[in-house]
Write a structure and sequence with these properties.
The complex is a heterotrimer of chains A (549), B (357) and C (347). With 549 residues, chain A is mainly α. Chain A is built from 23 helices and ten strands. In chain A, strands 1-3 form a two-stranded antiparallel ribbon. Chain A has a two-stranded parallel sheet with strand order 2-4. In chain A, a hairpin with a 5-residue loop joins β8 and β9. The longest helix of chain A is centred in the N-terminal third of the chain and has 30 residues. Chain A starts with 14 loop residues before the first helix and ends in a 20-residue tail after the last strand. Chain B folds into two domains: 128 residues, Protein Transport Mog1p, Chain A (3-Layer(aba) Sandwich); 129 residues, Protein Transport Mog1p, Chain A (3-Layer(aba) Sandwich), CATH 3.40.1000. Chain B is built from nine helices and 14 strands. In chain B, the strands form two sheets. A seven-stranded antiparallel β-sheet of chain B has the order 1-2-3-7-6-5-4. Chain B has a seven-stranded antiparallel β-sheet with strand order 8-9-10-14-13-12-11, sandwiched between helices. Chain C has 347 residues and is of the alpha/beta class. In chain C, 28% of the residues lie in helices and 19% in strands. Chain C contains nine helices and eleven strands. In chain C, the strands form two sheets. In chain C, strands 1, 2, 3, 4, 7, 8, 9, 10 and 11 form a nine-stranded mixed β-sheet that branches. Classes of the chains: A mainly alpha (549), B alpha+beta (357), C alpha/beta (347). At the A-B interface, α1, α2, α14, α20 and β8 of A face α1 and α2 of B.
Chain lengths: 549, 357, 347
């Protein structure tokens, strides 16, 4: 026993150093960015927006930047911010995943909270599995799809997914819980105003989002998978992680194992978030740089460093076979025509309900740009913007924003959706441009569609009952809904004046307030369809807009 | 249920570099936090609105054509070519004039809808119905209002109140009116009417004259005898000489609702002579009034003669004559007559003209 | 074979549970107790206490106990008129003149009272388009209520057609009210309750914006004068439309009835009609500067019907009779049209 070499013995590190060790700093950083993300969702509301960069996490996402560059050839507005994350990755590896990404933080937290495995099982659960290379194939297929013009990264990009889920599922859920709580408190005479600050959409009645169930369920399912496989989403599915993993091969810093110190005890695997095999050859593309292994090494054999790296103890490239690459490429190439054969971007068979927010670019370009983050939906003060279902936008347009005028209308002097859109699917517009005033007088207002009357359901037209709410609320001046005033004797022998409304399509901007306010509430007597939308020259309705005089 | 294993730190070596870089990260986070905070500028509504000046510059004048209200027409009762002109004949539309809208009628219940504020004075004179219509010809229009005031006395009262006292009253076929610059106002029987054009134009003047002519030709809207015509047509007196006294006639509180006419041209009547006329509710009531009036008058008058044609009284001090007669429910007579023969003649003429009705 | 059974057939730790008489009785009683209670709850006639029975299916239909609004009216002091119009170059001046003639604001609002100020911010429009109550008059009123009358709290509330947060922000009313010390109440999910208005034809029972109205002592309506195609004008009484919730757009089937019902529903302390920017046509939304006519009058008073009648004739400058809702409101005892004749005008 005594002739074995003595291990160097260090004094335990002083408390200040323990407090400021990297794992602690990482936790602070994760909490900070998670809070920043919640702040971003919270501030994406008309009365709070101010100058908050509420979409910056999306704009920093290198996958968003890369895929939109592939699909459009250009980088929109704030997308160069992706360089920050790119630079971080090139220096430190996939730090984004475990230091910044709010979705990663969510998985990390839930995975930690519900982890009831014993130590041995933990090592096993954090061992690399071949399935973890699935994300690279997925990334490849998505990028090929993007290059062809169908941007689908948003389905699984963690930042998009997180924003979307919060906007359409968690925020309304939280708001209605707060409302119920407030109702309860109000019964005991408490003032409810303070709770308004906790709400994501204060000052509005209950917001509704179609398909919220599926969006919320996807999140719950993916987060729930952490119990089966820790960090399931991050390790198996995350296309952004895959992109960063590929980039991380050039990273300056990495975990380095001192093979002379290492006793192959495998304790470093007990909390390895990325399943990066720190106990053997480090899989650089999988390592999240969570620094847990540093803390767990009883031999101080692990370092996070750029100096004196052991070239043999690392595997820089992701483990992805040529066959997988081939399959993914073929899949990506096939998926494009499959998605498009339904004619979502076609001008012949498009859905009349496919009404895009003001400022949206023409549909095929829209599909090249929209990442389904649903920030626009979150920002919409009237709740008219909805995540599209298959019915309106087909498979390709799932969860892209569409306007549902049965719920509300597009507010005349609001351009918030265009302000928060990170990719320019909804181009940044001003109210002036939206209304076609001033410098934009020549091109006229932005038209979302055209309103039509269903005269078989309209009260004055079909039933000789006075109404014309639609005319009253029509916001353009002069009004796009005019009336033919007629006196009739109804079946009860009473003479009534009917103001029978009709559309002046030349003036209609398709804001949908007529539909939203129509009292025939199930199937509206006045409704807006996409035809005549000004974003597309091929979906015009009128040859020219008539003028008086 | 939750993670049973506490977080632990096994390693002992924590380098200075690690601590420094950790602190650096925290500083960077602090800086990012500060930056986010600085971006939370107050929301200025004008930031996301359109400048008012821009709106003003690209203001659109509303020049849309709006179809006029289409009125209800009972099917089968009339053809579209012949509009319903209410009491008027189709001649009303002569000269290229057209009915604008349709003939509207108002009752005391909804008169304020039409002439809010001024309704009170019509209601004070027993207003019964208003017939209102507008004629148009090109840019000019002309409104006709016929107020049915139930009795000529009311119409006369209204007319007296509303007309310009300086203006001369013209009479034509039972219609009495004063022309105004853009029309006329006047009365016929129990009807008070007002014609107002939109401009001082010869067409308006001409149309007004034609409408007055039509009013004269039209059947009397109410069946009651027109007392005004009795004097103007019967006795040939000017309209201005006709007067009406609602109550306290001859200072007697039991006498109400008497018509007078002065300015008699008969010889010997004198400048102050007036004829009067009253229609009682019944012959019995007339007889009663006749007797009471005679009794009261005998305080100041002495009876000169009493015949079938009537009684003749002479004032004890002034020496003027007062003649009174009764015919069925009608009372009539003359006062302040200078000469008894003239008084008898007036009584006779009054009998002729009033009995004619 | 018998030799094989060297171990007892049952596990030695097997624990028999004998059923004693006491146990049996306890179980029977327990069963009877729980079963009896359940049977009582399920079968007892509806009027019995704790009965859950609902034979007709109607008991389970939720009913909300409707609330009633108070009568917030205060008679003008002797020597003051019911309705007055103030003319002047500034909003403050007009307001002062009009309020002075009706007896002064402190006559109507006592110290320590809670006041609801109801502007019309129905649309997301900038103030100079005339579609909303101008922020200047809101600020002036809030300040006077807090400073001159020493009101405890001044609430400013409306249920706009467009996004409430935007409407309040863009109309400038939020900033004006908050600068002067007022508090904004937005219509959120908890803000509505069913209101019972006896005598009203269409809204005898209807959800209204209740939160700002709870515990309120006085209510003041401050409305812009606007054109309205169907109702002909949107003035002081139509302003109360903004308190309604529910599917209020069906009221256009009988607009004059509903507006006269509103006069019955809300008996305000004061009605202020702001004639600073009159929306002459294309109402009630407006949107073009050419629709707005600048004015120099503020009408204030206790007779909402007279105020509307005066406003219709003099602010909107119409002489085609009055909107039908005014005589209807008069018939419901909410004011007098004829009082519009005796409005005192102070220049």
């Amino acid at each position: 026993m005594s002739d074995l070499p003595r291990l160097p013995i260090y004094e335990p590190a002083p408390p200040v150093r323990r407090w400021l060790r990297l794992t602690n700093v990482r936790l602070v950083c994760q909490a900070f960015f998670f809070a920043a993300f919640i702040l971003a969702v919270w501030a994406t509301w008309t009365s709070r927006l101010g100058g908050y960069p509420v979409s910056r996490l999306l704009e920093m996402d290198p996958l968003v930047a890369l895929s939109t560059v592939l699909s459009t050839g250009f980088l929109y507005r704030f997308l160069p911010w992706a360089l920050v994350v790119l630079a971080l990755t090139l220096i430190f590896g996939r730090v984004f995943c475990n230091w910044i990404c709010p979705y990663g933080t969510l998985h990390h937290f839930v995975g930690w909270l519900f982890n009831v495995r014993k130590n041995k099982e933990r090592w096993h659960s954090n061992r690399y599995r071949p399935i973890y290379s699935f994300k690279y194939g997925l990334l490849l297929a998505l990028l090929i799809l993007a290059a062809l013009g169908a941007l689908q990264i948003g389905l699984l990009d963690p930042i998009c997914l997180m924003y979307r889920t919060f906007a359409t599922a968690l925020a309304p859920a939280s708001d209605s819980l707060i409302d119920a709580f407030a109702r309860l408190l109000g019964r005991f005479g408490f003032d409810l105003a303070l709770l308004d600050h906790l709400k994501f959409a204060p000052g509005s009645e209950r917001r509704i989002f179609s398909g919220s169930f599926w969006i919320g369920s996807l999140l719950v399912a993916l987060v729930g998978m952490n119990i089966v496989i820790p960090r399931f989403f991050c390790r198996v599915l995350c296309p952004l992680g895959a992109l960063l993993g590929v980039t991380a091969r050039f990273a300056l810093f990495r975990i380095d194992r001192d093979v002379h110190r290492c006793t192959d005890c495998n304790v470093c695997m007990s909390r390895c978030e990325g399943a990066a095999d720190p106990q053997g050859q480090l899989r650089l593309s999988e390592c999240f740089a969570c620094m847990n292994c540093l803390d767990d090494c009883p031999e101080d054999a692990l370092r996070f460093t750029m100096l004196e790296l052991d070239r043999k103890q690392v595997r820089v490239n992701p483990e992805i076979g040529r066959r997988q690459v081939l399959f993914s490429s073929v899949l990506g190439l096939l998926a494009f025509p499959f998605l498009r054969s339904g004619g979502a971007d076609d001008d012949r068979n498009y859905s009349p309900a496919l009404i895009r927010p003001p400022g949206s670019v023409e549909e095929s370009q829209f599909l090249e740009k929209c990442i389904k983050c649903d920030q626009c939906i979150n920002a919409c003060p009237t709740n008219v913007l909805q995540p599209a279902t298959f019915a309106e936008a087909g498979i390709e347009g799932l969860w892209t924003p569409v306007l549902n005028f049965n719920i509300a209308h597009c507010q005349l002097k609001c351009t918030l959706c265009s302000e928060v859109c990170p990719t320019g699917a909804i181009r940044r517009i001003t109210v002036e441009e939206k209304l076609g005033k001033g410098a934009y007088a020549e091109q006229g207002p932005i038209r979302l569609g055209t309103a039509f009357f269903d005269r078989g359901r309209c009260l004055p037209h079909a039933m000789e009952i006075p109404c014309v709410v639609c005319e009253e609320v029509c916001p353009v001046s002069p009004k796009a809904i005019q009336t033919v005033d007629q006196e009739v004797k109804d079946v009860f022998g009473k003479i009534v004046v009917l103001n029978k409304p009709f559309m002046v399509p030349d003036l209609c901007i398709g804001c949908g307030i007529c539909q939203a306010e129509c009292p025939v509430t199930d199937s509206r007597a006045v409704y807006v369809t996409a035809v005549g939308e000004s974003r597309s020259p091929h979906r015009k309705l009128l040859l020219q807009h008539r003028q008086a005089g | 249920m939750f993670n049973p294993i506490p977080r632990r730190l096994v390693r002992r070596r924590i380098t200075r570099a690690e601590v420094l870089s950790g602190s650096l990260v925290l500083l960077v986070l602090l800086a990012i936090g500060g930056w986010i905070r600085s971006r939370a500028e107050a929301y200025d509504p004008a930031d996301r609105d359109i400048a008012f000046e821009t709106l003003q510059r690209s203001s659109v004048v509303d020049t849309l054509y709006r179809r006029p209200l289409q009125y209800w027409r009972e099917p089968g009762t009339e053809s579209a070519a012949v509009p319903d002109l209410g009491p008027f004949p189709q001649d009303l539309l002569a000269g290229g004039w057209q009915l604008d809208g349709r003939v509207e009628t108002y009752t005391p219940e909804n008169l304020y809808v039409k002439i809010n504020g001024a309704a009170e004075q019509f209601l004070a004179f027993d207003f019964e119905a208003l017939t209102y219509l507008t004629l148009v010809r090109g840019p000019i229009f002309l409104t006709i209002e016929l107020y049915d005031q139930a009795r000529p006395a009311n119409a006369l009262g209204l007319f007296a109140r509303l007309r310009n006292p300086e203006a001369r009253v013209l009479s034509s076929g039972g219609v009495h009116y004063t022309p105004t610059s853009v029309g006329a106002l006047g009365m016929r029987g129990a009807i008070f009417f007002r014609i107002v054009g939109s401009a001082q134009r010869p067409e308006v003047e001409q149309k007004t004259r034609q409408i007055i002519g039509l009013l004269a030709e039209m059947a009397r809207p109410t069946a009651a005898v027109d007392e005004v015509e009795l004097f103007t047509e019967g006795l040939g007196l000017p309209f201005e000489s006709v007067a009406y006294q609602k109550e306290n006639v001859f200072q007697y509180d039991f006498l109400e609702d008497f018509w007078f006419a002065s300015g008699l041209d008969s010889p010997g009547a004198g400048p102050d002579a007036r004829v009067f006329f009253h229609r009682a509710a019944s012959p019995a009531r007339a007889r009663d009034l006749y007797r009471r009036l005679l009794d009261e008058q005998l305080v100041e008058y002495e009876q000169v003669e009493a015949r079938q044609a009537g009684v003749l009284l002479r004032h004890r001090y002034l020496g003027t004559y007062f003649a009174l007669a009764r015919d069925g429910a009608r009372l009539y007579g003359a006062e302040h007559v200078a000469d008894p023969a003239a008084a008898r003649a007036l009584l006779k003429r009054m009998k002729e003209v009033s009995g004619g009705h | 074979m018998a030799t094989r059974r060297d171990k007892p057939l049952q596990h030695p730790e097997y624990d028999k549970q004998p059923l004693t008489r006491r146990d049996f009785a306890r179980r029977v009683l327990g069963t009877l107790g729980v079963g009896g209670a359940a049977a009582y709850l399920a079968l007892a006639p509806e009027r019995w206490p704790l009965s859950l029975r609902d034979g007709s299916g109607l008991r389970s239909v939720p009913t909300e106990r409707p609330m009633r609004l108070g009568d917030y009216r205060v008679a003008p002091p002797s020597g003051a008129v019911e309705v007055a119009v103030g003319y002047g170059s500034s909003v403050a001046e007009r307001l002062d003149k009009a309020l002075e003639a009706v007896g002064g604001l402190p006559h109507y609002v006592r110290p320590g009272e809670i006041v609801l100020l109801k502007p019309n911010v129905a649309f997301d429009r900038s103030p100079n388009l005339g579609a909303t109550t101008s922020p200047e008059i809101v600020e002036e009123l809030v300040r006077r209520l807090l400073v001159d009358c020493r009101a405890q709290e001044v609430r400013v509330a409306d249920n706009p057609i467009e996004s409430p947060a935007d409407c309040f922000a863009k109309s400038g009313v939020r900033r004006a009210a908050e600068q002067a010390g007022g508090r904004i109440y937005l219509p959120d999910a908890n803000a509505f309750r069913t209101l019972n208005t006896p005598g009203a034809k269409l809204i005898e029972s209807w959800p209204v914006l209740y939160r700002p109205l709870s515990n309120v002592d006085k209510v003041i309506g401050v409305a812009p004068a606007k054109d309205h195609n169907l109702c002909r004008a949107s003035l002081g009484i139509k302003n109360w439309y903004g308190l309604l919730g529910g599917r209020r757009n069906q009221f256009h089937q009988d607009i004059h009835e509903i507006v006269s019902d509103l006069a019955l529903m809300m008996r305000p302390t004061l009605t202020v009609l702001d004639g600073s920017r009159v929306l002459m046509k294309n109402g009630p939304t407006g949107g073009d500067p050419s629709n707005v006519k600048p004015g120099h009058a503020v009408v204030a008073g206790t007779d909402p019907v007279a105020i509307d009648a005066w406003g219709y004739r003099h602010l909107l400058e119409r002489d085609d009779g009055l909107p039908e809702y005014l005589p209807k409101a008069e018939a419901k005892g909410c004011g007098r049209v004829a009082a519009a004749e005796s409005v005192r005008e102070i220049t």
